[in-house]
Specification:
Elements: H1 29-40, H2 42-57, H3 62-85, H4 92-99, H5 102-133, H6 137-140, H7 143-162, H8 165-196, H9 218-232, H10 237-240, H11 250-272, H12 278-283, H13 288-297, H14 299-333, H15 352-371, H16 373-383, H17 386-404, H18 413-439, H19 445-469, H20 472-475, H21 482-489
Length: about 500
């Protein structure tokens, strides 16, 4: 392990020359926050997770969301401190590789790419289904039509992501205003519906909603924590656009995103879950937010809710492409991936090759999972491990933050709390959730084989990369190869 000085850390390399790196200084803190929240996709995440949470912890959905808040805030503080040391498009990949071990850094980058690539595939199918629902239930059941519409949406957000980070932020702003305004409005309407009009077949809040026994016991609560981690995941997009942010605003944006997500998730979950008894919600799990809209306001508001889910999913897909392209760009820039990934469009200053490849790869996965049952089942098995993958790279990041600043932790009370206790608590929490989930059989053998087997394959690729690519990252991890790689690519960048 390397032993960087921690008292007054400095950036690992000078800013990129104009035209060779990502476009610096274009994102304000508000832009970064909406990109991060779009990546978490509150509306889409609630649509996917609400019924599962209810089935897992009954009506105690607030409990896992609340319990996860403090450790995830601690991890976000770790992100902020590491970003202050070194804003990097690779974020956890760069920090872990340079402060702990290059192979651990590669592994972190690999599982983050796994998380975003597989996660985007899981988003694209609902896009096609929701869109076709407006025209025909028959069309929504046609796998070819669903794949075609999903592919169209994927290419749309791919173009937006490729044309510039500012355009991506504006796209996220547009949907954020509509999506979050709608969630707040529907939450208020749901509370009025439940408590103001005395509708039958609704469920009122009781004290058991906030107890471990009400959640079905400790084991059920831990399963709920894994779902809550998945709900929060995506806020770390703030870190991946750190090189394109003004100053060091990516760090505070990550903390702000976590706090806002807690408010949105806790309020909407508590409001929506009382609309109908649990068994009715489970019966409508496939379109649960459409069901909520129908109960509150009839067919019109059902369709409005479908539009919100559609738009939220689209924004989440776009933010995922932004994140994954920057991670692979950073790995290509350091030559642990083929340097082709490190190419930047001279005109748009985006990681052009990585963005296009990852967007099109999602289309390939979409058609493969739609047309070939075995691929679809494999992807579903991997999706089931996404919460654990997120927990893994959050654990690595928080642990790295504590390690890097270890010499200054005891300097004063602020450093002890912000640099040691909170990130350390976040790392310990993620480690506990991972170990407990595996020890108690929360995942079946197929899910572990596909999900973790493919994740661990990243270590094999890292060994191959070191031998074949001979990147200085493995011998001198604190030395960035970004400038040299970009200078070499400058003459042949796509425009």
């Amino acid at each position: 392990m390397s032993s960087p000085a921690s008292s007054a850390p400095a950036p690992a390399h000078a800013p990129d020359p104009p035209g060779r790196g990502l476009k610096a200084g274009v994102l304000r803190i508000g832009d970064i926050v909406v990109l991060s929240m779009a990546s978490s996709g509150p509306t889409q995440s609630i649509a996917v997770t609400l019924a599962v949470l209810l089935a897992t912890v009954n009506y105690s959905t607030f409990l896992p969301i609340f319990i996860c808040l403090i450790p995830i805030l601690g991890i976000a503080i770790g992100y902020q401190r590491l970003n202050a040391w070194q804003p990097s498009a690779g974020a956890t990949y760069s920090w872990v590789g340079r402060a702990l071990n290059p192979h651990a850094g590669f592994f972190a980058g690999w599982i983050m790419l796994m998380y975003y690539c597989v996660g985007t595939t899981s988003l694209t199918v609902p896009l096609g289904t929701y869109m076709l629902t407006f025209f025909s239930n028959t069309a929504a059941s046609n796998v070819y039509a669903v794949a075609a519409v999903g592919s169209g949406f994927d290419i749309l957000v791919l173009i937006i992501a490729a044309l510039g980070i500012k355009l991506s932020a504006r796209f996220s702003w547009g949907w954020a205003i509509f999506e979050y305004g709608l969630l707040v409005g529907f939450s208020i309407a749901a509370i009025v519906y439940i408590y103001g009009n005395h509708h039958p077949h609704t469920v009122h809040v009781t004290s058991s909603w906030f107890t471990v026994s009400g959640a079905g016991g400790f084991s059920a609560l831990v399963s709920g924590l894994l779902l809550a981690i998945f709900l929060y995941s995506g806020w770390d997009t703030a870190a991946y656009v750190g090189e394109e942010a003004r100053g060091k605003q990516a760090g505070p944006a990550a903390i702000t995103s976590v706090a806002l997500l807690f408010v949105i998730y806790s309020v909407t979950m508590l409001a929506f879950q009382g609309i109908a008894p649990n068994h009715v919600m489970q019966a409508n799990a496939a379109n649960i937010l459409a069901f909520v809209g129908q109960r509150i306001g009839g067919s019109f508001w059902k369709n409005v809710m479908i539009v919100a889910v559609l738009g939220g999913t689209l924004a989440s897909l776009q933010a995922a492409i932004v994140s994954s392209s920057r991670i692979s760009f950073a790995m290509g820039r350091d030559r642990v991936f083929p340097r082709w990934f490190g190419a930047v469009s001279e005109k748009h200053r985006t990681p052009w090759n990585a963005t296009i490849l990852l967007g099109l790869l999602n289309v390939v996965f979409l058609w493969g999972s739609t047309l070939i049952g075995s691929i679809g089942r494999a992807l579903n098995d991997i999706v089931s491990t996404l919460g654990l993958m997120a927990a893994s790279f959050y654990l690595l990041t928080a642990g790295t933050a504590v390690w890097y600043y270890r010499r200054s932790i005891l300097a004063n009370a602020g450093n002890l709390v912000l640099g040691g206790i909170l990130p350390g608590l976040g790392a310990a929490f993620m480690a506990f959730v991972i170990i407990y989930s595996l020890a108690t059989g929360s995942l079946n053998g197929i899910e572990i084989t596909f999900g973790f087997g493919l994740a661990l394959f990243g270590l094999v690729l890292s060994v191959i990369s070191k031998r074949v690519g001979k990147s200085v990252f493995y011998t001198e991890p604190m030395t960035s190869q970004g400038d040299a790689a970009e200078a070499e690519l400058a003459g042949s960048q796509p425009t």
